[in-house]
């Protein structure tokens, strides 16, 4: 494959949609399925009454509720959580159709040896054919980590609870990690890296996160208010390239959006891409391999075997952004 | 009839687990590992353990860099494909017979099972090029990584990246780290 130069075709169209990634897997029937909630305006959750040993139950529950609120506050998305209160008896299981938030203070449910460093997991069960999520539990490792409410977390195994919770709820909603990186204040919450020195930065959503949840669960009128950029990435032999990182920067607002080629199950070829949810403005479009600090290892499901080994490029085959 | 319906529900659902773990550099992987071995996967056998799918892997071990010398190793890791049900833990290494790897392993959990340190961070796949030269590749499989940065020591410039490093060079670095940590412990 010749990768020294690529053809980046861009077409601005006034159609709805996204820039981030959706959790997508290949079903046992061989088709690609995205994990989503069928009724996003009625996603229930229940909190284990004990909360975290490091905080009072009331404090724990308040932080978790605030974390859900961060996502339901997105005006362009139709996401509503149904707070089912607390439970004494429920334990994490993938078959009870109750979305439980649980702090495992003994390791009984995670079973992870201490040195594995597991902080939290979100277990999602979905229908193989439709991808509709049927059960999602978030389990925090309270045995090996201490969870804090404050923005300054002490050295050691202290973790800002809300930073992790907001990220995990993004997974619960069906969002995959985003390939977008950057300084903490603009780094998307669904970026795969979290730093304790940037405590608090993951608690607010960035344009890429907002575009993601709005694409998955659009509010009335949202689709008419945004545009998309679609195109195809091919090498000189006209072969479509999968997994290339397409970024669009709104030159008027500075907002960043991204996707990877081949991310949509409906794409005609693995080289096709569509950036969704773009706010009005002029855009600078660029293409780069997903390699370096964030690479294909930070993704799951179908997102593997990305095309790499080619230089970054801007729209119309330009090598720089002038 | 009830059993049949239950079976259908299980067969038609796909579990996926998103995972956030502490980030470990090579020094931390080495320090947190109870044993470090080079081996080849010989068997991968999924089975039910307490209502969850685990896969039992048998490795033949060619080198033990840390921990006692052994010729064979068993791992029991959550996840696998059994009787129409798939459980996949994002960030948990998956092995197939014939896979070569350098493994950084924890002490055993309550079930008596060791896991890779930092899940996929503790697994370096050994891949060979056309000239049969082995190199190591860390495959994170979708993990979200949390870095604790308060310690000044952790703000030191990172080591040379190990991704794609020749196996012998990688093992030499791990041995050096292991020996240094052993000296420090004494």
Structure described in brief:
Chain A has helices at residues 57-72, 161-173, 207-216, 222-225, and strands at residues 7-13, 24-26, 32-34, 43-48, 81-87, 100-104, 118-127, 133-141, 146-148, 158-160, 193-195, 227-234, 244-250, 256-260, 272-278, 283-289, 313-314. Chain A is an alpha/beta fold.
| Number of distinct helices of chain B | 3
List the secondary-structure elements of chain A in sequence, H or E.
Answer: EEEEHEEEEEEHEHHEEEEEE
Q: Major sheet of chain B: order of its strands?
A: 4-3-2-7-8-9-11
Termini of chain A, distance in Å? 28 Å
Percentage of residues in strands of chain B:
35-45%
Helix content of chain A: 10-25%
Radius of gyration of chain B: 18 Å
SS-based structural class of chain A? alpha/beta
Q: What summary fits the major beta sheet of chain B?
A: 7 strands, antiparallel
Number of strands of chain A: 17
Would you identify the regions of chain A where 5 or more consecutive residues have pLDDT less than 50? 1-19
Main beta sheet of chain A: 5 strands, mixed
User: What spatial order of strands do you see in the largest sheet of chain A?
Assistant: 5-4-6-8-7
- With helices defined by DSSP (H or I, 4 residues minimum), what is the helix count of chain A? 4
How many DSSP E strands of chain B? 11
């Amino acid at each position: 494959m010749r990768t020294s130069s690529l053809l980046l075709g861009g077409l601005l169209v006034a159609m709805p949609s996204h820039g981030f990634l959706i959790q997508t897997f290949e079903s046992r029937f061989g088709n690609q399925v995205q994990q989503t909630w069928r009724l996003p305006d009625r996603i229930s959750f229940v909190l284990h009454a004990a909360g975290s040993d490091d905080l009072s139950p009331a404090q724990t529950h308040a932080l978790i509720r605030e974390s859900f609120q961060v996502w339901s506050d997105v005006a362009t998305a139709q996401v509503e959580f149904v707070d089912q209160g607390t439970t004494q008896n429920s334990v994490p299981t993938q078959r009870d159709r109750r979305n439980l938030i649980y702090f495992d203070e003994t390791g009984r449910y995670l079973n992870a040896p201490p040195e594995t460093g597991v902080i939290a997991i979100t277990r999602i069960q979905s229908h193989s054919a439709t991808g509709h999520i049927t059960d999602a539990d978030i389990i925090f490792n309270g045995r090996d980590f201490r969870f804090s409410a404050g923005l300054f977390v002490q050295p050691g195994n202290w973790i800002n609870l809300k930073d992790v919770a907001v990220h995990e709820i993004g997974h619960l909603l069906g969002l995959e990690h985003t390939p977008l990186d950057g300084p903490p204040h603009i780094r998307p919450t669904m970026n795969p890296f979290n730093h304790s020195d940037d405590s608090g930065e993951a608690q607010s959503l960035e344009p890429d996160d907002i575009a993601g949840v709005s694409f998955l669960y659009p509010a009335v009128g949202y689709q008419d208010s945004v545009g998309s950029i679609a195109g195809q990435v091919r090498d000189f032999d006209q072969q479509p390239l999968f997994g290339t990182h397409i970024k669009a920067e709104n030159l008027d607002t500075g907002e960043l959006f991204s996707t990877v080629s081949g991310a949509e199950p409906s794409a005609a070829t693995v080289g096709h891409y569509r950036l969704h949810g773009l706010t009005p403005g002029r855009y600078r479009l660029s293409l780069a391999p997903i390699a370096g600090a964030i690479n294909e290892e930070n993704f799951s499901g179908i997102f593997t075997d990305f095309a790499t080994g080619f230089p970054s490029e801007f729209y119309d085959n330009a090598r720089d952004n002038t | 009839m009830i059993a049949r319906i239950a079976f259908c529900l299980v067969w038609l659902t796909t579990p996926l687990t998103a995972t956030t773990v502490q980030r470990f550099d090579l020094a931390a992987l080495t320090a947190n590992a109870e044993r470090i071995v080079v081996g080849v996967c010989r068997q991968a056998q999924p089975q039910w353990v307490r209502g969850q799918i685990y896969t039992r892997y048998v490795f033949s071990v060619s080198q033990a860099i840390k921990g006692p010398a052994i010729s064979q190793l068993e791992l029991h890791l959550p996840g696998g494909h059994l009787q129409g049900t798939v459980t996949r833990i994002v960030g948990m290494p998956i092995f197939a017979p014939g896979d070569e790897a350098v493994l950084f392993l924890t002490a055993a959990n309550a079930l008596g099972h060791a896991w890779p340190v930092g899940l996929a961070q503790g697994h370096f796949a050994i891949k060979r090029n056309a000239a049969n030269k082995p190199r190591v590749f860390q495959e994170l499989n979708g993990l979200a990584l949390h870095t604790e940065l308060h310690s000044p020591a952790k703000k030191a410039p990172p080591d040379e990246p190990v991704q794609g490093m020749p196996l012998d060079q990688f093992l030499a670095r791990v041995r050096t780290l292991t020996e240094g940590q052993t000296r420090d412990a004494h």
